[in-house]
Design brief:
By secondary structure, the protein is of the alpha/beta class. The protein has one domain: Diaminopimelate Epimerase, Chain A, domain 1, CATH 3.10.310. 54% of the residues lie in helices and 13% in strands. It is built from seven helices and four strands. The protein has a four-stranded mixed sheet, with helices on both faces. β2 and β3 form a beta hairpin. α3 packs parallel to α7 and α6 runs antiparallel to α7. The longest helix has 24 residues. The radius of gyration is 16 Å and the shape is globular.
Length: 168
Amino acid sequence: MSLKFIQRLFKHLFVLPGVVRRYFPADSMRHIEAAIAASESSHMGEIRFVVESNLHIFDILGKKSAKKRAIEVFSQFHVWDTAQNNGVLIYLLLADRDFEILADRGVHQNVGNQGWEKISHEMEVMFRKGQFENGVLYGIEQISTLLMQYYPVDGENVNELPNTPIII
């Protein structure tokens, strides 16, 4: 086992679920939920925010990355299951200090990797400064701008996914 693997294992063992509330207190979660709701009123897309404190030891032993876990979460919370394939997930794994923005194929084909990388870079800068709520709100704002461009409100704007942030 490499030193890096052992360090990651210990991070996941000692970053307990309650740590999420330190980074995202109740007020922050309400602000994020309100930002998602406001965003979704201006386009036909769907945004979900999920934060996870740590991974199960078996996931660590299996060397599961934040990206792989984000793909599972994307499926678990049906972000892929929107009528126009326009769901976007912001997934944050605190123990690894890593996050992913995943978009359904309808959105991704319009935005591409460069679009997501630009948003991710700015979010990462904020996260490194300890500005977790601001980083997520920035991500929602930027994603919203893209969704307004590619999925403008056209007729009835049905909210297909809950706006409430999820803590795993």
